[in-house]
Specification:
The complex is a heterodimer of chains A (200) and B (246).
Chain A (H helix, E strand, L loop, with lengths): L5 H10 L7 H13 L2 H17 L1 E2 L6 E2 L13 E8 L2 H10 L4 E5 L18 H8 L5 E4 L5 H14 L5 E4 L15 H9 L6
Parallel strand pairs in A: 3-4, 3-5, 5-6
Antiparallel strand pairs in A: 1-2
Chain B lengths: L1 E15 L3 E8 L3 E7 L18 E8 L6 E10 L8 H17 L7 H13 L6 H14 L20 E3 L17 E3 L1 H10 L18 H15 L4 H8 L3
Parallel strand pairs in B: 3-5
Antiparallel strand pairs in B: 1-2, 1-4, 2-3, 4-5, 6-7
The chains are: A alpha/beta (200), B alpha+beta (246).
Chain lengths: 200, 246
Protein backbone atom coordinates (compact mmCIF):
# COMPACT_ATOMS: atom_id res chain seq x y z
CA UNK A 1 0.00 0.00 0.00
CA UNK A 2 1.26 3.49 -0.87
CA UNK A 3 2.35 5.85 1.92
CA UNK A 4 0.41 8.67 0.23
CA UNK A 5 -3.15 9.22 -0.94
CA UNK A 6 -3.72 7.83 -4.42
CA UNK A 7 -3.78 11.18 -6.38
CA UNK A 8 -0.61 12.34 -4.63
CA UNK A 9 1.09 9.03 -5.23
CA UNK A 10 0.13 9.20 -8.92
CA UNK A 11 1.56 12.72 -9.24
CA UNK A 12 4.81 11.59 -7.60
CA UNK A 13 5.01 8.66 -10.05
CA UNK A 14 4.51 10.98 -13.02
CA UNK A 15 6.96 13.65 -11.82
CA UNK A 16 9.68 11.08 -11.14
CA UNK A 17 9.57 10.13 -14.83
CA UNK A 18 11.00 13.57 -15.70
CA UNK A 19 14.74 13.76 -16.48
CA UNK A 20 16.86 14.66 -13.48
CA UNK A 21 13.96 14.17 -11.04
CA UNK A 22 14.37 11.36 -8.55
CA UNK A 23 11.70 9.98 -6.21
CA UNK A 24 12.61 12.42 -3.43
CA UNK A 25 12.55 15.49 -5.66
CA UNK A 26 9.23 14.30 -7.10
CA UNK A 27 7.79 14.09 -3.56
CA UNK A 28 9.04 17.61 -2.80
CA UNK A 29 7.48 18.99 -5.99
CA UNK A 30 4.20 17.15 -5.39
CA UNK A 31 3.89 18.57 -1.85
CA UNK A 32 4.75 22.03 -3.18
CA UNK A 33 1.94 21.73 -5.73
CA UNK A 34 -0.41 20.54 -2.99
CA UNK A 35 0.32 23.65 -0.92
CA UNK A 36 0.17 26.07 -3.86
CA UNK A 37 -2.89 28.12 -4.93
CA UNK A 38 -5.39 26.14 -6.96
CA UNK A 39 -5.17 28.50 -9.96
CA UNK A 40 -1.38 28.04 -10.13
CA UNK A 41 -1.75 24.27 -10.15
CA UNK A 42 -4.44 24.47 -12.82
CA UNK A 43 -2.28 26.84 -14.92
CA UNK A 44 0.58 24.31 -14.79
CA UNK A 45 -1.72 21.44 -15.79
CA UNK A 46 -3.18 23.56 -18.61
CA UNK A 47 0.30 24.53 -19.87
CA UNK A 48 1.32 20.87 -20.03
CA UNK A 49 -1.93 19.92 -21.79
CA UNK A 50 -1.55 22.72 -24.36
CA UNK A 51 2.05 21.77 -24.97
CA UNK A 52 0.92 18.41 -26.28
CA UNK A 53 -2.27 19.65 -27.92
CA UNK A 54 -0.98 22.65 -29.89
CA UNK A 55 2.63 21.95 -30.74
CA UNK A 56 3.71 20.03 -33.81
CA UNK A 57 6.82 19.62 -35.94
CA UNK A 58 7.44 22.03 -38.81
CA UNK A 59 6.91 20.16 -42.06
CA UNK A 60 10.00 21.85 -43.57
CA UNK A 61 12.64 21.91 -40.83
CA UNK A 62 11.24 19.62 -38.06
CA UNK A 63 11.46 22.39 -35.46
CA UNK A 64 8.85 22.30 -32.70
CA UNK A 65 6.24 24.92 -33.62
CA UNK A 66 2.72 26.12 -33.00
CA UNK A 67 2.18 27.06 -36.65
CA UNK A 68 3.31 24.93 -39.57
CA UNK A 69 5.62 26.00 -41.29
CA UNK A 70 7.50 27.49 -38.35
CA UNK A 71 8.46 31.14 -37.80
CA UNK A 72 11.97 30.59 -39.19
CA UNK A 73 10.82 28.93 -42.41
CA UNK A 74 8.26 31.65 -43.17
CA UNK A 75 10.38 34.64 -42.16
CA UNK A 76 11.23 36.66 -45.31
CA UNK A 77 14.10 38.45 -43.55
CA UNK A 78 15.99 35.21 -42.99
CA UNK A 79 18.20 33.73 -45.69
CA UNK A 80 16.25 30.66 -46.79
CA UNK A 81 19.22 29.42 -48.84
CA UNK A 82 21.45 28.70 -45.82
CA UNK A 83 20.49 25.77 -43.61
CA UNK A 84 22.00 25.02 -40.23
CA UNK A 85 21.60 21.35 -39.26
CA UNK A 86 21.21 20.72 -35.52
CA UNK A 87 20.58 17.66 -33.36
CA UNK A 88 17.67 18.91 -31.24
CA UNK A 89 15.17 21.80 -31.32
CA UNK A 90 16.78 23.18 -28.15
CA UNK A 91 20.02 23.74 -30.11
CA UNK A 92 18.22 26.42 -32.19
CA UNK A 93 17.80 28.65 -29.13
CA UNK A 94 21.55 28.40 -28.42
CA UNK A 95 22.45 29.44 -31.97
CA UNK A 96 19.84 32.21 -31.98
CA UNK A 97 21.42 33.65 -28.81
CA UNK A 98 24.62 34.36 -30.78
CA UNK A 99 22.72 36.80 -33.09
CA UNK A 100 25.29 35.86 -35.78
CA UNK A 101 23.12 33.57 -37.87
CA UNK A 102 20.22 34.65 -40.06
CA UNK A 103 19.59 31.51 -42.08
CA UNK A 104 17.11 28.70 -41.44
CA UNK A 105 17.41 25.35 -39.67
CA UNK A 106 16.95 21.62 -40.04
CA UNK A 107 16.45 19.52 -36.91
CA UNK A 108 17.53 15.86 -37.02
CA UNK A 109 15.95 14.88 -33.68
CA UNK A 110 18.96 12.80 -32.66
CA UNK A 111 22.30 11.53 -33.91
CA UNK A 112 23.56 8.26 -35.32
CA UNK A 113 24.10 6.00 -32.32
CA UNK A 114 25.08 2.38 -33.03
CA UNK A 115 24.92 1.59 -29.30
CA UNK A 116 21.27 2.62 -29.18
CA UNK A 117 20.34 1.19 -32.59
CA UNK A 118 19.74 4.65 -34.03
CA UNK A 119 20.65 4.58 -37.70
CA UNK A 120 20.01 6.98 -40.58
CA UNK A 121 16.44 5.66 -40.92
CA UNK A 122 15.58 6.82 -37.39
CA UNK A 123 16.76 10.40 -38.00
CA UNK A 124 14.83 13.07 -39.89
CA UNK A 125 17.29 13.48 -42.76
CA UNK A 126 15.03 13.05 -45.77
CA UNK A 127 13.60 16.60 -45.69
CA UNK A 128 17.13 18.03 -45.75
CA UNK A 129 18.13 15.86 -48.70
CA UNK A 130 14.95 16.90 -50.53
CA UNK A 131 15.69 20.59 -49.95
CA UNK A 132 19.27 20.14 -51.21
CA UNK A 133 18.08 18.11 -54.19
CA UNK A 134 15.61 20.84 -55.16
CA UNK A 135 18.58 23.20 -55.56
CA UNK A 136 17.14 25.78 -53.15
CA UNK A 137 20.19 25.78 -50.89
CA UNK A 138 23.56 27.58 -51.16
CA UNK A 139 25.13 26.35 -47.92
CA UNK A 140 24.46 23.63 -45.36
CA UNK A 141 26.14 24.14 -41.98
CA UNK A 142 26.52 20.90 -40.03
CA UNK A 143 26.17 21.96 -36.40
CA UNK A 144 25.95 18.61 -34.62
CA UNK A 145 27.92 18.27 -31.38
CA UNK A 146 31.66 17.54 -31.68
CA UNK A 147 31.19 14.13 -30.01
CA UNK A 148 31.83 10.70 -31.53
CA UNK A 149 28.18 10.36 -32.54
CA UNK A 150 27.82 13.99 -33.64
CA UNK A 151 30.95 13.77 -35.80
CA UNK A 152 29.79 10.48 -37.35
CA UNK A 153 26.41 12.05 -38.14
CA UNK A 154 28.03 15.12 -39.69
CA UNK A 155 30.29 12.99 -41.87
CA UNK A 156 27.40 10.74 -42.91
CA UNK A 157 25.34 13.79 -43.90
CA UNK A 158 28.28 15.38 -45.72
CA UNK A 159 28.68 12.21 -47.79
CA UNK A 160 24.95 12.14 -48.58
CA UNK A 161 24.89 15.83 -49.53
CA UNK A 162 28.07 15.82 -51.62
CA UNK A 163 26.22 15.08 -54.86
CA UNK A 164 24.22 18.32 -54.60
CA UNK A 165 25.48 21.78 -55.45
CA UNK A 166 25.24 23.27 -51.95
CA UNK A 167 28.44 24.14 -50.08
CA UNK A 168 28.79 21.95 -46.99
CA UNK A 169 30.48 23.40 -43.92
CA UNK A 170 31.12 22.18 -40.36
CA UNK A 171 31.02 24.43 -37.30
CA UNK A 172 34.46 25.17 -35.86
CA UNK A 173 35.67 23.61 -32.63
CA UNK A 174 38.35 24.91 -30.32
CA UNK A 175 39.15 26.88 -27.20
CA UNK A 176 36.09 28.46 -25.51
CA UNK A 177 36.16 32.23 -25.09
CA UNK A 178 37.73 33.24 -21.80
CA UNK A 179 39.44 29.87 -21.34
CA UNK A 180 43.12 29.27 -20.67
CA UNK A 181 45.16 27.34 -23.26
CA UNK A 182 47.11 25.73 -20.40
CA UNK A 183 44.01 23.83 -19.31
CA UNK A 184 42.74 22.83 -22.76
CA UNK A 185 43.00 19.14 -23.67
CA UNK A 186 45.18 18.08 -26.61
CA UNK A 187 42.31 17.23 -28.96
CA UNK A 188 40.56 20.57 -28.46
CA UNK A 189 43.84 22.42 -28.92
CA UNK A 190 44.67 20.38 -32.04
CA UNK A 191 41.27 21.22 -33.54
CA UNK A 192 41.79 24.88 -32.65
CA UNK A 193 45.16 24.88 -34.42
CA UNK A 194 43.71 23.15 -37.48
CA UNK A 195 40.84 25.62 -37.63
CA UNK A 196 42.99 28.76 -37.24
CA UNK A 197 42.18 31.68 -39.52
CA UNK A 198 44.05 34.65 -40.92
CA UNK A 199 43.74 37.94 -39.02
CA UNK A 200 42.61 40.67 -41.37
CA UNK B 1 38.93 6.23 1.00
CA UNK B 2 41.48 4.59 -1.34
CA UNK B 3 42.81 6.73 -4.16
CA UNK B 4 43.84 5.12 -7.46
CA UNK B 5 45.61 6.27 -10.58
CA UNK B 6 45.51 3.95 -13.57
CA UNK B 7 45.41 3.87 -17.34
CA UNK B 8 41.83 3.33 -18.44
CA UNK B 9 39.53 3.22 -21.44
CA UNK B 10 36.17 4.96 -21.20
CA UNK B 11 33.47 2.50 -22.27
CA UNK B 12 30.13 4.25 -21.82
CA UNK B 13 28.49 7.11 -19.99
CA UNK B 14 24.93 7.67 -18.79
CA UNK B 15 23.34 10.84 -17.38
CA UNK B 16 23.07 10.50 -13.60
CA UNK B 17 20.87 12.83 -11.57
CA UNK B 18 20.83 16.43 -12.71
CA UNK B 19 24.41 17.19 -13.73
CA UNK B 20 26.53 14.08 -13.18
CA UNK B 21 27.59 11.28 -15.49
CA UNK B 22 27.80 7.61 -14.60
CA UNK B 23 30.93 6.29 -16.31
CA UNK B 24 31.83 2.70 -17.14
CA UNK B 25 35.61 2.49 -17.20
CA UNK B 26 37.99 -0.32 -18.16
CA UNK B 27 41.06 0.27 -16.00
CA UNK B 28 44.35 -1.53 -16.51
CA UNK B 29 44.89 -2.14 -12.78
CA UNK B 30 41.41 -3.00 -11.56
CA UNK B 31 39.46 -4.09 -14.63
CA UNK B 32 36.03 -2.59 -15.10
CA UNK B 33 34.88 -0.03 -12.59
CA UNK B 34 31.88 2.24 -12.58
CA UNK B 35 31.97 5.68 -11.12
CA UNK B 36 30.44 9.12 -10.96
CA UNK B 37 31.95 12.08 -12.78
CA UNK B 38 30.53 14.99 -10.78
CA UNK B 39 29.00 17.86 -12.78
CA UNK B 40 30.37 16.38 -16.01
CA UNK B 41 27.03 16.78 -17.77
CA UNK B 42 26.77 20.48 -17.01
CA UNK B 43 30.39 21.55 -17.33
CA UNK B 44 33.08 20.19 -19.60
CA UNK B 45 35.79 22.17 -17.85
CA UNK B 46 37.20 19.30 -15.78
CA UNK B 47 36.82 16.38 -18.18
CA UNK B 48 36.83 18.08 -21.61
CA UNK B 49 36.45 15.55 -24.39
CA UNK B 50 37.83 12.66 -22.31
CA UNK B 51 34.41 11.17 -21.58
CA UNK B 52 33.85 10.06 -25.17
CA UNK B 53 33.63 6.25 -25.55
CA UNK B 54 36.95 4.47 -26.26
CA UNK B 55 39.07 7.39 -25.09
CA UNK B 56 42.34 6.24 -23.48
CA UNK B 57 43.01 8.21 -20.32
CA UNK B 58 45.01 8.21 -17.13
CA UNK B 59 42.23 8.14 -14.57
CA UNK B 60 42.40 9.35 -10.98
CA UNK B 61 39.55 8.02 -8.89
CA UNK B 62 38.69 7.25 -5.30
CA UNK B 63 37.07 4.14 -3.90
CA UNK B 64 34.97 4.34 -0.79
CA UNK B 65 34.57 1.27 1.41
CA UNK B 66 31.30 -0.64 0.86
CA UNK B 67 30.36 1.54 -2.13
CA UNK B 68 30.07 0.11 -5.61
CA UNK B 69 30.56 3.38 -7.48
CA UNK B 70 33.91 5.16 -7.36
CA UNK B 71 34.35 8.93 -7.41
CA UNK B 72 36.10 9.99 -10.62
CA UNK B 73 38.37 12.94 -9.92
CA UNK B 74 40.34 13.50 -13.11
CA UNK B 75 41.03 12.13 -16.57
CA UNK B 76 44.29 12.95 -18.31
CA UNK B 77 43.96 12.36 -22.05
CA UNK B 78 46.33 9.79 -23.58
CA UNK B 79 44.58 9.18 -26.92
CA UNK B 80 41.19 10.18 -28.26
CA UNK B 81 39.21 8.59 -31.10
CA UNK B 82 38.21 12.14 -32.05
CA UNK B 83 41.76 12.82 -33.21
CA UNK B 84 40.88 10.96 -36.45
CA UNK B 85 37.96 11.59 -38.82
CA UNK B 86 34.83 9.81 -37.56
CA UNK B 87 32.59 8.16 -40.13
CA UNK B 88 29.52 6.02 -39.39
CA UNK B 89 31.41 2.74 -39.83
CA UNK B 90 34.18 3.83 -37.46
CA UNK B 91 31.61 5.01 -34.91
CA UNK B 92 29.87 1.61 -35.19
CA UNK B 93 33.18 -0.26 -34.77
CA UNK B 94 34.10 1.76 -31.66
CA UNK B 95 30.59 1.26 -30.28
CA UNK B 96 30.98 -2.48 -30.90
CA UNK B 97 34.19 -2.64 -28.83
CA UNK B 98 32.59 -0.58 -26.06
CA UNK B 99 29.42 -2.67 -25.99
CA UNK B 100 31.29 -5.99 -25.92
CA UNK B 101 33.72 -4.85 -23.21
CA UNK B 102 31.01 -3.32 -21.07
CA UNK B 103 29.05 -6.56 -21.18
CA UNK B 104 31.80 -9.16 -20.81
CA UNK B 105 34.16 -7.63 -18.26
CA UNK B 106 33.51 -8.49 -14.64
CA UNK B 107 33.87 -5.70 -12.08
CA UNK B 108 37.25 -5.25 -10.38
CA UNK B 109 39.00 -8.04 -12.29
CA UNK B 110 42.14 -6.88 -14.16
CA UNK B 111 42.39 -8.17 -17.74
CA UNK B 112 45.70 -6.92 -19.11
CA UNK B 113 45.59 -8.97 -22.33
CA UNK B 114 42.13 -7.60 -23.19
CA UNK B 115 43.32 -4.09 -22.32
CA UNK B 116 46.27 -4.41 -24.72
CA UNK B 117 44.04 -5.92 -27.43
CA UNK B 118 41.61 -3.00 -27.06
CA UNK B 119 44.33 -0.35 -27.35
CA UNK B 120 45.68 -2.07 -30.47
CA UNK B 121 42.36 -2.38 -32.28
CA UNK B 122 41.20 1.15 -31.38
CA UNK B 123 44.47 2.56 -32.71
CA UNK B 124 43.97 0.65 -35.99
CA UNK B 125 40.28 1.57 -36.35
CA UNK B 126 40.41 4.48 -38.75
CA UNK B 127 37.90 5.78 -41.28
CA UNK B 128 38.02 3.42 -44.24
CA UNK B 129 40.06 0.67 -42.50
CA UNK B 130 37.70 -0.72 -39.92
CA UNK B 131 37.04 -4.28 -41.02
CA UNK B 132 40.46 -5.70 -40.11
CA UNK B 133 40.46 -4.47 -36.47
CA UNK B 134 36.79 -5.46 -36.06
CA UNK B 135 37.58 -8.98 -37.32
CA UNK B 136 40.67 -9.23 -35.12
CA UNK B 137 38.79 -8.03 -32.02
CA UNK B 138 35.75 -10.22 -32.58
CA UNK B 139 37.99 -13.31 -32.87
CA UNK B 140 40.37 -12.52 -30.03
CA UNK B 141 37.71 -11.53 -27.49
CA UNK B 142 36.06 -14.99 -27.43
CA UNK B 143 39.52 -16.53 -27.39
CA UNK B 144 40.72 -14.50 -24.39
CA UNK B 145 37.46 -15.20 -22.59
CA UNK B 146 37.78 -18.95 -23.24
CA UNK B 147 34.68 -19.04 -25.45
CA UNK B 148 36.34 -19.79 -28.80
CA UNK B 149 35.87 -23.40 -29.93
CA UNK B 150 38.59 -25.34 -31.75
CA UNK B 151 39.02 -23.95 -35.25
CA UNK B 152 40.88 -26.92 -36.67
CA UNK B 153 38.53 -29.83 -35.98
CA UNK B 154 34.86 -30.72 -36.09
CA UNK B 155 33.10 -30.34 -32.74
CA UNK B 156 31.06 -33.51 -33.36
CA UNK B 157 33.62 -35.99 -34.74
CA UNK B 158 36.98 -34.24 -34.12
CA UNK B 159 37.91 -34.73 -37.78
CA UNK B 160 40.37 -32.07 -39.05
CA UNK B 161 38.67 -29.13 -40.77
CA UNK B 162 40.79 -28.67 -43.87
CA UNK B 163 38.07 -27.55 -46.24
CA UNK B 164 35.17 -25.28 -45.33
CA UNK B 165 33.40 -25.51 -41.96
CA UNK B 166 29.84 -24.86 -40.81
CA UNK B 167 28.41 -23.01 -37.83
CA UNK B 168 24.95 -22.46 -36.38
CA UNK B 169 23.67 -19.87 -33.92
CA UNK B 170 22.05 -22.63 -31.83
CA UNK B 171 25.21 -24.75 -31.40
CA UNK B 172 28.72 -24.24 -30.13
CA UNK B 173 31.67 -24.89 -32.39
CA UNK B 174 32.44 -25.64 -36.01
CA UNK B 175 31.20 -28.70 -37.87
CA UNK B 176 32.36 -30.70 -40.86
CA UNK B 177 30.04 -31.17 -43.83
CA UNK B 178 28.78 -34.52 -42.48
CA UNK B 179 27.85 -33.22 -39.02
CA UNK B 180 26.58 -29.76 -39.90
CA UNK B 181 23.30 -28.70 -38.30
CA UNK B 182 20.42 -27.91 -40.71
CA UNK B 183 20.32 -24.22 -41.75
CA UNK B 184 23.89 -23.70 -40.66
CA UNK B 185 26.14 -21.07 -42.28
CA UNK B 186 29.31 -21.66 -44.23
CA UNK B 187 32.75 -20.58 -43.05
CA UNK B 188 34.91 -20.65 -46.18
CA UNK B 189 38.31 -22.29 -46.35
CA UNK B 190 39.95 -18.83 -46.74
CA UNK B 191 38.23 -17.48 -43.62
CA UNK B 192 39.06 -20.63 -41.67
CA UNK B 193 42.74 -20.31 -42.63
CA UNK B 194 42.66 -16.60 -41.78
CA UNK B 195 41.13 -17.34 -38.36
CA UNK B 196 43.87 -19.85 -37.64
CA UNK B 197 46.49 -17.24 -38.66
CA UNK B 198 44.87 -14.48 -36.60
CA UNK B 199 45.26 -16.71 -33.54
CA UNK B 200 49.01 -16.77 -34.06
CA UNK B 201 49.99 -13.35 -35.38
CA UNK B 202 49.73 -9.71 -34.28
CA UNK B 203 47.30 -7.33 -35.95
CA UNK B 204 50.01 -5.48 -37.85
CA UNK B 205 50.79 -8.66 -39.83
CA UNK B 206 47.45 -8.39 -41.63
CA UNK B 207 47.47 -4.64 -42.17
CA UNK B 208 49.36 -4.70 -45.48
CA UNK B 209 46.71 -6.22 -47.76
CA UNK B 210 43.37 -4.67 -48.64
CA UNK B 211 40.42 -5.30 -46.31
CA UNK B 212 37.18 -4.75 -48.20
CA UNK B 213 34.02 -5.41 -46.20
CA UNK B 214 33.45 -8.76 -47.94
CA UNK B 215 36.72 -10.19 -46.63
CA UNK B 216 36.14 -12.54 -43.67
CA UNK B 217 32.49 -11.45 -43.48
CA UNK B 218 31.54 -15.03 -42.56
CA UNK B 219 34.24 -15.18 -39.89
CA UNK B 220 32.93 -12.00 -38.25
CA UNK B 221 29.41 -13.42 -38.33
CA UNK B 222 30.70 -16.59 -36.64
CA UNK B 223 32.64 -14.80 -33.89
CA UNK B 224 29.89 -12.24 -33.24
CA UNK B 225 27.42 -15.12 -32.81
CA UNK B 226 29.75 -16.68 -30.24
CA UNK B 227 29.79 -13.41 -28.30
CA UNK B 228 26.02 -12.98 -28.50
CA UNK B 229 25.39 -16.61 -27.58
CA UNK B 230 27.51 -16.36 -24.43
CA UNK B 231 26.14 -12.96 -23.48
CA UNK B 232 22.59 -14.20 -24.15
CA UNK B 233 21.68 -10.91 -25.81
CA UNK B 234 21.89 -9.21 -29.18
CA UNK B 235 24.62 -6.62 -29.54
CA UNK B 236 23.19 -3.40 -31.03
CA UNK B 237 26.47 -2.29 -32.57
CA UNK B 238 27.06 -5.76 -34.08
CA UNK B 239 23.68 -5.44 -35.82
CA UNK B 240 24.72 -2.04 -37.23
CA UNK B 241 28.02 -3.50 -38.46
CA UNK B 242 26.07 -6.30 -40.16
CA UNK B 243 23.85 -3.72 -41.86
CA UNK B 244 26.92 -1.88 -43.06
CA UNK B 245 28.12 -5.04 -44.70
CA UNK B 246 30.11 -6.75 -41.99
Amino acid sequence: MSRFAEPLSRLIDELSKLPGIGRKSAQRLAFHLLRTQEEDAVALAEAIRELKAHLCLCSICNNVTELDPCAFCTNPTRNQRIICVVEEPSNIASIEKTKRYAGVYHVLHGVLSPLHSIGPEQLRMQGLLDRARAGMVDEIILATNPTTEGEATAMYLANQLREFSARITRIATGIPAGADIEYADEITLAHAMEGRHAME
Amino acid sequence: MISHQSEAIVLRTWPFQEADLLVSLFTRDLGRVRGIAKSALRSRRRFGGTLEPMTWVRATYAEKPRQELVRIDQFELLASPLAQPMDYLRAAALAFYAEVLDNVLPDHDPQDAIFRLTLTVVEQTRAGTCWLPVTYFSLWMPRLLGWLPALDRCTACAAPLEEAAYFHSGSDGLFCVEHRVPNSSLLTRESLALAQNVERAPLSTFADGPWPRQRAQDLRRFTMRILERHLERRLNAAAVLSQLGG
